[in-house]
Amino acid sequence: MSYWADVIFVLIVVLNLGLLSSSRLGNCIRLVAIEGALLGLLPLLLQGGQPEGRTFVFALGSILVKGIILPLMLNWAVREANIFREVEPFIGYTVSMVIGVVLLIVSFWISARLVLPIEVSRLAVSTALFTILVGLFLIVSRKKAITQALSYLVMENGIFIFGTMAVALETSFMGIIIFHINRQFEHIDMDQLASLKDWHGTRHSEERT
Amino acid sequence: MDFFTLTIPWSFPGGSFSIGLDALSVFFLIPLFIISSLCVFYGWEYLKHDTKNKSLSVTWFFYALLVFSMALVFMARNAILFLIAWELMAVSSFFLVMFEGEKAETTFAGWIYLVATHLGTAFLLVMFVILGNLAGSLEFNAFSNIDRFNPSLAGLIFILAVIGFGAKAGIVPFHVWLPEAHPAAPSHVSALMSGIMIKTGIYGLLRILTYLGQPPLWWGGLLIGSGLVSGVLGILLALSQHDIKRLLAYSSVENIGLICVGLGIGMLGQNTGMQTLMFLGYAGALLHIFNHSLFKSLLFLGAGAVAHAAGTKRMDFLGGFLKKMPWTAGTFLIGAIAICGLPPLNGFVSEFFIYWGSLEGLMARSHYLVGLFVIIIGAGALIGGLAVACFIKTFGIVFLGESRKPALKEIREITWLMRLPMILLAILCLAVGICSPWLLKMLRPVLEIVMAQAADDMSLLFSKATEALSMITNYAVILLLLFLGIFFLRRWAVKNRPIAAGETWACGYLHPSARMQYTASLFTQPLTMLFRNVLFFRQYKVLKGKFFPQEGSFKSETHDPAGYIYQPPFILFKIIAHRLRLIQHGNLHLYILYIVITLIVLLIWKVGFGL
Amino acid sequence: MKWYALIHIGLGLVGSPLLLGIMNRVKAFFAGRRGPALVQPYYDLWKLLRKGNVYSRTTTWIFTTGPMLGLAAVLTALTLMPFGGISALISFKGDLILFVYLLGITRFFTVLAGLDTGSSLEGMGASREVQFSALVEPALLLGLTALALETRCLSLSVIYRQMTTIIHPSIISVVLLVMVAFFFIFLTENARIPVDDPNTHLELTMVHEVMVLDHSGIDLAIIQYTAALKHWIFGLLIAGLAVPIHTGEFWLDTVGVLGGIFIVAVLVGVVESTLARFRLIHIPKMLVAASVLSVLAMILVEVSK
Q1: Is B55 within the bounds of a domain?
Q2: Does C86 reach chain B within 8 Å, measured CB to CB?
Q3: With a cut of 0.90, is the ipTM above it?
């Protein structure tokens, strides 16, 4: 059973690396959605044996919110603002991928050093750390607001993994992150988003020539 | 140890004229003599056209002095003798580089070279002083008898050796003189310098290592790190050059990097006790030293022939030389295949050992070591791929296609005197590639010296390596046989077919002109753009006319990042020197006053404080 | 020397053009056409062999020797390639390095022959090809290194034999990652969409095709056959990992791996039909991704030790 969990963790790592190298916003949102959905399955797998009723509900809820509802919201925002690609980021895509590998090695190294009270799979801890680091890296290196929101989601995914080992943290973190995302979009009402569009629109046409 | 020694008493304090021959010295002397003698034939013909008002006897005097001093460096068994030979080597090569001293860029190159080599020698001086203090004498024998080393002192000696010898070998960031000096010298001198002179740095490093005992982990790591940086940076910079000889100079930097990686792997093996690793690393490095001297000299001689015939070194003006200089092209192609490390030539054998060593290193216990070896394999493969790109570009742009500028003067194949050395070197490359198992056998005594610490059972390692090498030779033979088979099959198949000649079709582009061909910088543009952050790549475009293009120009250049490191200290030095110029005012009286004051001060010091 | 490996080499020599036929057929299926016959590549090769040649006056002996050397190198590489779990003709420790470099020879001479024509189009293809190969080599070597790290062996035949005997779920992720990396490399080395379009003749999209524009007759036949053999070799690299059967029965294993190669060909056809060619600046990203996947596989191997 834990093999499947390991496969999920590897998939998460691959998805994160893909996120680092992707310039299309639609792609990024899809990747984060798949990540969220996969992580929703995680508690079911880790329960082992008889999964309890509330675990089912929780998993279903996570998959619904992270895999369907949030991406829909983000896609709507993307379409409204009419931006489909990331503007040239501070750190190029190929370099980001290489930095991602470095972050991965760092997270594995840290997880080897950490002394944890509970018995956990080393792969899980490393993946969690890596996801959080990727989220932080994305905040630092990307310019668009949407990508910033996505990186919050990614960080939340990372914390979620930690959370499956200590469930209580999870709901509170989820709440905090959703609150932050809300705040990001709160004071940007549609008109201002549209003016963002104009600015990004002209940048775009500059890029195309 | 030494199977031949000669000691002549000398009144130099601390120094003695003691030379010796052991396997390590002989290993370096062989390529020295091969290449220097071949280059004499080449140079004789090459310089004949440059007689004008220059006296050839002067330059040949310095040539002989250079060869003599290098031989002395390899044979010296006393630190003072070593340093004297080292200095002699530097000075004679400086004069050789300045052969065309009337050109501004040659003088610039010469000065940079002189400053760089003396800075390196300063570090060597300090290093020998420390070693001498520890051993009580400046004899190499005494050095090898030092039993226990204070680890931090050993570390200091190692660092000084790496900097001092690395400056001569061309390890990044001490390589900045290489791309200036090597192109400026006449080609037979460049071949000698790139082929052997930079290897004296490696020889010195090896020699000091044999005295220092068991290397700690970080030494190997340091060599591997600087080796990989030299390798990648060297080949990237080589890719972006327009001038053939500069390209070859940067490629030398890359190969020295590979040699250092091999040495580092050997040292790691020595430290961790992994015998195979130690053997493969050192053997790979030593083989690469030998191989590189062969094919790099070959390439420089070829480049010199082309530059000589065409009157320019800029690749963007050349093209189509294969038809006019078939022998030069053929030997240059062999050199290019060898330097890319492709089987069945010699370059593959040394790279094979280094890769094999890294693969063996993967079986190590420590995760860090495994990670390091993965990095070596990845970076090594990248270096190999970029080297292929670089030399395809060089050979393709210079020898293939059509001439990009109408012939500046009639291009003729060079004379047999210049051709023979290149042909001989090409044959040697092929021979070493195919006869590598026997070469390995001859390498045994050298390895025994270098691995002196822990050569427990060499026979097992040797047999495994020889087995692999004979497999490679088998494969080389299979490859050649297959090629011949296909060749004759094709001959037979094409017998009665119509064969016509025409213009290049290229999917229907009529009348391509020679100027429309790809240029050197354009060929590597995808790669230089990919790595543009490392290369400080700059493009200058002048495009006039909106709807109807008019005359325009384009220039691209890359700058060596290491050059930027040296600018601040040298600018500071310039400012200080400028201030100090005040002392040199030309007033005779004041000079005499300086002397008198100094004498009086010395007298007081001696008498007053009893020195 | 394992003599029964000669059967596999024979299979490769005969069956490699069939892979091209399969890919074309799959693409035609997606396009709603009937498509060429599966054995069409054989007819094409036969036609080319019987034609005469036209040589450009700019070209030299490199133009004719290049393809021949390339073919010789690929044939030599074929003798090193194990067929799934069954050993190759000759194998020795470290032969994977020789393998990678033999493919390097092919690339070297194909590109050089392209530059020989002195055309700017072919120079363009050569420069792009050379850029991709510079990035493919580390990816390929790192992928093989990942396998070597997992099985702790240094010979291709031994690695693949070990891979088929260790069918443990814990290494599934490692195998999958390396397979995906090899798939990217397959697409690049064999000039398939999304890296290069083998059917195009537009300057915008040509990389490999454009280098061989001036070759005709038997030279073109040699080049196309070399390409087919490369398809076969890289297909073997992937199929050998994907088909973890080692029943010990020679013919059963052979058929299994053959099936694997054909499935790889079908998969490539599907990929070619559903994707568009990537923009040229995105292809280095894909190749770096292949290396990164191999590194990830190696990290997983190290973690599970």
Answers
A1: yes
A2: no
A3: yes
